[in-house]
Design a protein that fits this description.
The chain has 182 residues and is mainly β. The two termini are 47 Å apart. It has two domains: 2-95, Immunoglobulins (Immunoglobulin-like), CATH 2.60.40.10; 102-181, Immunoglobulin-like, CATH 2.60.40. The mean pLDDT is 94. The chain has no helices and 18 strands. A hairpin with a 3-residue loop joins strand 13 (131-136) and strand 14 (140-141). Keywords: Glycoprotein, Membrane, Signal. It is found in: Membrane. It comes from Myripristis murdjan. One of its GO terms (cellular component) is membrane. This is Ig-like domain-containing protein.
Length: 182
């Protein structure tokens, strides 16, 4: 699986078996739809649909580069060399960067004797899969959920931070003062 950032570029680098060298034809497909085809005999390279103007094929190596990605380029890519479908396919997922998260307190006040919840908040639509991590001004917390519970046991902590991360980006929140220590 290949993750690529929206607006970025992806390169698919297949291995050409020795018995198929030199290449006489290359055919790339996404979800069984034509992306590009090249025939040495015709000395022509044809790009199809949304791939026209966004894609570059290296006719020596079969490498496929796609620029300015958006979600429409997600899918399973396959390649044929000299008419033979290659066993390796490439699952491409184009995703957004994670936003800068905000630490949100629930409930809005945190009485000393009770626990409250901190939520690592931000719109992650189109940025999945997202993982979360938490730390304080003193240590990393062994928590990987979107929210954590805090209470009077955490009164020695001054600040909490959360991080959102996906395969193409990561962002840290600004510090949030510990509501349990106020």
């Amino acid at each position: 699986q290949v993750y690529s950032v929206e607006g970025g570029k992806v390169t698919l680098q297949p291995i050409v078996p020795d018995q198929l060298k030199p290449l006489t034809s290359i055919l790339w497909k996404r979800n069984d739809n034509l992306v590009v085809e090249w025939f040495k005999k015709l000395d022509s390279t044809d790009y199809y649909g949304a791939f026209r103007g966004q894609t570059n094929l290296d006719i020596e190596t079969g490498r496929l580069e796609i620029d300015t990605l958006d979600g429409t380029y997600s899918g399973v890519y396959s390649v044929e060399f000299n008419g033979q479908l290659q066993s390796e396919s490439y699952k491409v997922d184009v995703i957004k960067k994670v936003p800068k998260p905000t630490v949100v307190l629930k409930p809005l006040t945190c009485p000393n004797e009770d626990t409250c919840t901190l939520i690592c908040d931000g719109d992650t639509t189109g940025a999945e899969p997202v993982t979360y991590s938490w730390r304080t001004d003193q240590r990393d917390l062994q928590k990987s959920e979107k929210s954590i519970k805090i209470g009077k046991d955490d009164s020695d902590v001054q600040y909490f931070f959360c991080q959102m991360k996906n395969p193409v980006s990561e962002e840290d929140s600004d510090p949030m003062e510990n509501p349990a220590s106020q």
